[in-house]
Amino acid sequence: MTPVTLREFRGEAIEISCARCNKHATLDRKALVKKFGAKMKFVQLSRVLSIGCERHGTGQCEASFPGLMK
Ligand SMILES: [Zn+2]
Protein backbone atom coordinates (compact mmCIF):
# COMPACT_ATOMS: atom_id res chain seq x y z
CA MET A 1 0.00 0.00 0.00
CA THR A 2 1.27 3.42 -0.89
CA PRO A 3 1.31 5.80 2.07
CA VAL A 4 -0.96 8.80 1.64
CA THR A 5 0.02 10.84 4.67
CA LEU A 6 3.24 11.36 6.63
CA ARG A 7 1.77 9.26 9.40
CA GLU A 8 1.55 6.23 7.14
CA PHE A 9 5.13 6.44 6.01
CA ARG A 10 7.42 4.05 7.90
CA GLY A 11 10.89 5.24 6.99
CA GLU A 12 13.04 7.99 8.46
CA ALA A 13 14.03 9.62 5.22
CA ILE A 14 11.71 10.60 2.41
CA GLU A 15 13.03 11.06 -1.07
CA ILE A 16 11.55 13.62 -3.39
CA SER A 17 12.59 14.05 -6.96
CA CYS A 18 11.48 15.78 -10.11
CA ALA A 19 12.29 14.09 -13.38
CA ARG A 20 11.41 17.14 -15.41
CA CYS A 21 13.61 19.60 -13.52
CA ASN A 22 16.26 17.00 -12.69
CA LYS A 23 16.18 17.86 -8.97
CA HIS A 24 16.05 15.67 -5.96
CA ALA A 25 16.28 15.92 -2.19
CA THR A 26 16.15 13.70 0.86
CA LEU A 27 13.88 14.90 3.63
CA ASP A 28 13.69 13.97 7.27
CA ARG A 29 10.24 12.60 8.08
CA LYS A 30 10.27 13.86 11.66
CA ALA A 31 11.11 17.37 10.56
CA LEU A 32 8.25 17.29 8.06
CA VAL A 33 5.81 16.06 10.68
CA LYS A 34 6.88 18.89 12.97
CA LYS A 35 6.44 21.44 10.27
CA PHE A 36 3.27 20.24 8.54
CA GLY A 37 1.70 17.70 10.90
CA ALA A 38 1.30 13.92 10.56
CA LYS A 39 -1.89 14.29 8.53
CA MET A 40 -0.07 16.08 5.76
CA LYS A 41 -0.58 14.31 2.46
CA PHE A 42 2.27 13.56 0.12
CA VAL A 43 0.29 15.01 -2.75
CA GLN A 44 0.21 18.33 -0.94
CA LEU A 45 3.82 18.05 0.13
CA SER A 46 5.01 17.81 -3.43
CA ARG A 47 3.32 21.17 -4.03
CA VAL A 48 4.54 23.07 -0.99
CA LEU A 49 8.09 21.76 -0.80
CA SER A 50 10.53 23.67 -2.90
CA ILE A 51 13.39 21.51 -4.09
CA GLY A 52 14.83 24.15 -6.32
CA CYS A 53 12.55 23.59 -9.28
CA GLU A 54 12.00 26.57 -11.48
CA ARG A 55 8.59 25.21 -12.39
CA HIS A 56 7.70 24.49 -8.79
CA GLY A 57 4.04 25.14 -8.04
CA THR A 58 3.12 25.82 -11.64
CA GLY A 59 1.63 22.44 -12.41
CA GLN A 60 4.44 21.73 -14.83
CA CYS A 61 6.72 20.47 -12.10
CA GLU A 62 6.61 16.71 -11.72
CA ALA A 63 7.93 16.45 -8.20
CA SER A 64 7.14 13.04 -6.73
CA PHE A 65 8.24 10.63 -4.04
CA PRO A 66 9.96 7.61 -5.64
CA GLY A 67 10.48 5.97 -2.24
CA LEU A 68 6.72 5.53 -1.82
CA MET A 69 6.31 3.31 -4.83
CA LYS A 70 8.06 0.26 -3.41
ZN1 LIG B 1 10.25 20.16 -10.76
Topology record:
Blueprint: E1 13-18, E2 23-28, H1 29-36, H2 42-48, E3 63-64
Antiparallel strand pairs: 1-2, 1-3
Bound molecules: zinc ion.
Zinc ion binds at residues 18, 20-21, 23, 53, 55-56, 61-63.
Domain unit count: 1
Order of helices and strands: EEHHE
Strand order in the sheet with the most strands = 2-1-3
Question: What share of residues is helical?
Answer: 10-25%
Instruction: Give the beta-strand count.
Output: 3
Largest sheet: 3 strands, antiparallel
Q: Please state roughly what percent of the residues sit in beta strands, choosing from under 5%, 5-15%, 15-25%, 25-35%, 35-45% or over 45%.
A: 15-25%
Q: Please, what is the average pLDDT?
A: 87
Low-confidence stretches: none
Helix tally equals: 2
The gyration radius over C-alpha positions equals 11 Å
End-to-end gap: 9 Å
Which hetero compounds are present in the coordinates?
zinc ion
Shape: globular
SSE class: alpha+beta
